[in-house]
Write a structure and sequence with these properties.
The chain is mostly beta strands. The chain contains no helices and ten strands. It has a six-stranded mixed sheet with strand order 2-10-9-4-5-6, with no helix packed on it. The radius of gyration is 13 Å and the shape is globular.
Length: 113
């Protein structure tokens, strides 16, 4: 069973930074692509960034140049470094092991304008 535990969210002023972490278990982490998603209030969940097992990355246009996804296979953890945060980045952020249905509980990111 895949388990995902996100952490690192919080309240930050616009222009600030946060780093999210997601610890995964129940999968062969190093062989799995991992993604970060977010869901703002009243909106659909959307893909923010994805990193392949080889470390190749892709980003939503809205976060390119501001967010960086990375992974530490030794720790079974994927990260999302967020800089220059904007009010519209406010959402619950989730990680996901691509190809698996499970979601973690998410971590709230709130950016004050």
């Amino acid at each position: 069973q895949v388990q995902l535990v996100e952490s690192g969210g919080g309240l930050v002023q616009a222009g600030g930074s946060l780093r999210l972490s997601c610890a995964a278990s129940g999968i062969v982490f190093s062989m799995n692509a991992m993604g970060w998603y977010r869901q703002a209030l009243g909106k659909q969940r959307e893909l923010v960034a994805v990193i392949s097992s080889r470390g190749n990355t892709n980003y939503a246009d809205s976060v390119k140049g501001r967010f960086t996804i990375s992974r530490d296979n030794a720790k079974n953890t994927v990260y999302l470094q967020m800089k220059s945060l904007k009010f519209e980045d406010t959402a619950v952020y989730y990680c996901k092991a691509e190809g698996w249905r499970s979601w973690g509980q998410g971590t709230q990111v709130t950016v004050s304008s």
